[in-house]
Write a structure and sequence with these properties.
The complex is a heterodimer. Helix content of chain A is 30%, strand content 31%. Chain A is of the alpha/beta class. A six-stranded mixed beta sheet of chain A has the order 2-3-1-4-11-5. In chain A, strands 8-7-9-6-10 form a five-stranded mixed beta sheet. The mean pLDDT of chain A is 92. Chain B is of the alpha/beta class. Chain B folds into two domains: 293 residues, BirA Bifunctional Protein, domain 2 (2-Layer Sandwich); 54 residues. Chain B is 35% helix and 28% strand. Chain B is built from 13 helices and 17 strands. The longest helix of chain B is centred in the middle third of the chain and has 18 residues. Chain B is elongated, with a radius of gyration of 26 Å. Classes of the chains: A alpha/beta, B alpha/beta. At the A-B interface, strand 5 and helix 7 of A face helix 7 of B.
Chain lengths: 210, 365
C-alpha cells in the first residue's frame, strides 16, 4: 500500500504557487490553503501531507527526513549545499542572485572589497572564482542599506524586478546565478518511496513550464 | 507524525563481527593515534572529515584516526600474493556531516585487500547486504559501477575537465542542470541522451545489465558490463538495486561503489567500494574493497532493544529469607540457566519462566 508523501512547502508567495502546481498535478489538499495558524495539512485519499515552513528551512526538513520532498529556491540550495536530490526545476519564482551597488561602483584595487549579504557562501564562492579578495559581511535583512550607509561597497542579494534597487539609487553590477524553485527529495527516503516520488515528478512535468 | 523509533538488537555489533569472522574476516585492532603523514599523502580522501592533530613528546605529529581504512592499508603486505581480509569495530574522530563538529564515532566495517578475484568482490557486496539485513529487513544496497560510468562518459564524449561537475549533478539526480551544462559545453544530443538514460536507469540487476549492454555493449572493449553482471548475478535475489547516481571520488575509487539505506533513517548508513586507485597512490600493487557502517547514525534513529534476557525470574514476597533466595538461585544457576531475583515483574524483562517464592507460614526463619 502506498505511504503518505510528506511535502515541505515554503511559506509565502512561492509556496502558494508551488501548491497550485501540485494541486493541478493531482496532489490536492484543499485545507492547505486555508488561512489560520495550522501548519500541517493532510489529504489521506491522495496520500499527501503538507507542511508550511520557513523558506530557508525547507532543505533542512528534507535533508533530515522530516519531509520526503520539498519545494525550495535554488538560492537556498546554493547557499547551504544540502545533501539531497534536486529532481526538477519547477520554473516558479524566477529571479537572480546578483551583485549590486551604487551606480558607477568600481571594485577598489587598493583594498579588500566589502560585500554585504545574507548569502555568505554564494558570495564567497563567487568572488573566489573571480580571484577577488572579499570581506563578507553577513546581514539578515535590509541588505540594500549597507552600501548607502557605507557599510559595504556592494551587496549580493536576490533581485526580482530591481524596483527596490532603483528606489535606493542602486543598480545590478553583475549576475551571479539564475534562481527558481526546485523540487527536492531526501536521498534515503527516495529509495523506499521511489515509485511515488517518480510518479510525482512525472505528473508535475506535465504542467511545468521552464 | 512523530515517528516511532525502530528497534535494534543490543548485540548487533557482536553479531556483525561474528558474521564477518564466519566468512574469514579477521578482527583488526588499531591504535587511536596514527602518524599524521598517513593522512597528508591522501588528504583529499578526508577532505570533508577533518583530522585532529597533536605533537608527541618527540615532536612527531600524530593524529586521532579519522578513518580505519588507511590504517589497515598502511599495514598490508605489498605484492605478497595473499588476500588479507579484515573486519573492525573501532572509534574514529572526525567532523560530523550533521553537526559540523568533531565527534568520536564508532565504525564497523570490512576490508579485503590483495589480488582480489570476482568472488572476493561479490563477497564484500554480500557482507554489505547482510550487514543491512541484520539491522533491518527493510533495507537496500544501492550499487553503482564507476567503470561503467567512465565508459558512458567516453562514449558520450564528456571532456575530462567537466566530468567532476557531471558526476556531482548525477549524484543529485539533477537532470535539468546536467542538460544545461552539456548544452553549454557542446556535448552532442546523443551524448546527453545517453547520460540521461544512465542517470534514470535503475532497477534489478538483470534489467539494468540488459539495457546497459544495448546502450554501451558495442563500445565496451574491456568487458566491464559483463564483469559487473557476472559479479552481481549470484546476488540477484538480495536487496540490491543498481543505481548510477551513486557516485564517489574517482581519484580513489574504481569499479563498484555503493551506499546502504535502512527504512526510517534519512541518510545512508553504509558506504563502500573498490579503492584500487587509492592503493596505487599508496604505491601498493594490489586491489582493495571494503565498506563501513555508521553506527552513530544508526543509534540516532534506532533504539537499542534493552530488554534483559533471562531464563528465570525468581519472584519473592516479603518474609522470604535471603538464605532461601540464595539457595534457590544457586540451584537454578547450577542447572545452567540464568536467574534474576526480583520483587515484581518489570516490563523490560524478557524471560522463559517465573518462579515465585512464598514465605513459609507467613515468614521464613
Amino acid at each position: 500500500m502506498a505511504e503518505m508523501i510528506n511535502i515541505a512547502l515554503p511559506k509565502g508567495r512561492l509556496g502558494k504557487a508551488a501548491y497550485k502546481l501540485l494541486e493541478k498535478s493531482g496532489y490536492d489538499c484543499p485545507t492547505a490553503m486555508e488561512d489560520g495558524r495550522k501548519l500541517v495539512f493532510e489529504n489521506k485519499e491522495k496520500k499527501v501531507r503538507y507542511f508550511w515552513v520557513k523558506p530557508s528551512d525547507v532543505a533542512i526538513y528534507v535533508e533530515r527526513g522530516a519531509a520526503d520532498v520539498g519545494i525550495v529556491g535554488k538560492d537556498i540550495l546554493m547557499e547551504y549545499q544540502p545533501d539531497i536530490y534536486e529532481l526538477m526545476d519547477l520554473g516558479l519564482g524566477k529571479c537572480k542572485v546578483a551583485v549590486a551597488g551604487k551606480k558607477g561602483t568600481f571594485y577598489p584595487k587598493e583594498r579588500t572589497l566589502k560585500v554585504a549579504t545574507k548569502f555568505g557562501n554564494i558570495a564567497r564562492e563567487y568572488y573566489r572564482s573571480k580571484g577577488v579578495e572579499a570581506d563578507i559581511i553577513h546581514l539578515n535583512g535590509s541588505i540594500e542599506l549597507a552600501p548607502i550607509l557605507g557599510l559595504s561597497d556592494v551587496i549580493v542579494d536576490i533581485v526580482e524586478t530591481g524596483t527596490t534597487l532603483r528606489e535606493n539609487n542602486l543598480e545590478v553590477l553583475s549576475e551571479v546565478a539564475g534562481v527558481s524553485a526546485r523540487l527536492v527529495a531526501n536521498k534515503a527516503i527516495y529509495q523506499f518511496k521511489r515509485e511515488q516520488i517518480e510518479t510525482m515528478v512525472k505528473e508535475l512535468g506535465n504542467f511545468v513550464e521552464v | 507524525m512523530s515517528r516511532d523509533r525502530l528497534q535494534i538488537n543490543k548485540n548487533f555489533k557482536e553479531d556483525l563481527m561474528t558474521m564477518y569472522n564466519a566468512y574469514g574476516f579477521k578482527n583488526f585492532k588499531v591504535n587511536r593515534f596514527e602518524e599524521y603523514d598517513v593522512y597528508v599523502e591522501n588528504k583529499d580522501f578526508f577532505a570533508d572529515k577533518g583530522v585532529i592533530t597533536f605533537m608527541d613528546t618527540d615532536g612527531k605529529l600524530l593524529a586521532l584516526k579519522p578513518d580505519v581504512t588507511l590504517s589497515i592499508l598502511k599495514n598490508v603486505k605489498d605484492n605478497s600474493g595473499e588476500i588479507e581480509k579484515y573486519c573492525y569495530c573501532e572509534s574514529v574522530f572526525r567532523v560530523s556531516a550533521r553537526s559540523r563538529r568533531f565527534e568520536e564515532m564508532t565504525q564497523i566495517g570490512v576490508e579485503s585487500i590483495g589480488p582480489l578475484f570476482d568472488y572476493h568482490i561479490a563477497e564484500v557486496l554480500l557482507q554489505a547486504v547482510n550487514t543491512l539485513r541484520n539491522i533491518s529487513k527493510e533495507s537496500e544496497l544501492a550499487v553503482s559501477n564507476l567503470e561503467v560510468i567512465a565508459l558512458a562518459f567516453q562514449v558520450a564524449g564528456i571532456p575530462r575537465e567537466i566530468q567532476p561537475r557531471i558526476t556531482a549533478l548525477m549524484g543529485a539526480k539533477n537532470l535539468h542542470e546536467l542538460q544545461s551544462l552539456c548544452e553549454k559545453e557542446g556535448v552532442s544530443e546523443e551524448g546527453m541522451v545517453l547520460l540521461k538514460e544512465l542517470m534514470l536507469l535503475s532497477g534489478s540487476i538483470r534489467q539494468v545489465c540488459k539495457r546497459l549492454q544495448m546502450l554501451l555493449g558495442s563500445f565496451d572493449e574491456n568487458g566491464c558490463i559483463e564483469t559487473m553482471e557476472n559479479i552481481l548475478k549470484p546476488l540477484e535475489n538480495e536487496n540490491i538495486r543498481l543505481d548510477f547516481t551513486v557516485v564517489s571520488n574517482m581519484k580513489y575509487y574504481n569499479g563498484f561503489v555503493f551506499l546502504g539505506y535502512i527504512k526510517g533513517i534519512p541518510d545512508a548508513v553504509l558506504f563502500g567500494g573498490q579503492y584500487d586507485r587509492l592503493l596505487q597512490q599508496m604505491k601498493k600493487g594490489c586491489k582493495g574493497m571494503g565498506f563501513a557502517l555508521d553506527v552513530e547514525l544508526l543509534l540516532a534513529y534506532l533504539e537499542e532493544d534493552t530488554k534483559e534476557d533471562m531464563d528465570v525470574v525468581l519472584l519473592y514476597e516479603d518474609g522470604v529469607s535471603i538464605a532461601r533466595l540464595m539457595e534457590t538461585a544457586k540451584e537454578i544457576v547450577k542447572e545452567g540457566r540464568s536467574v534474576l531475583v526480583e520483587k515484581e515483574l518489570r516490563p523490560s524483562l524478557c524471560y522463559n519462566e517465573v518462579i515465585k517464592l512464598e514465605a513459609e507460614n507467613g515468614r521464613d526463619d
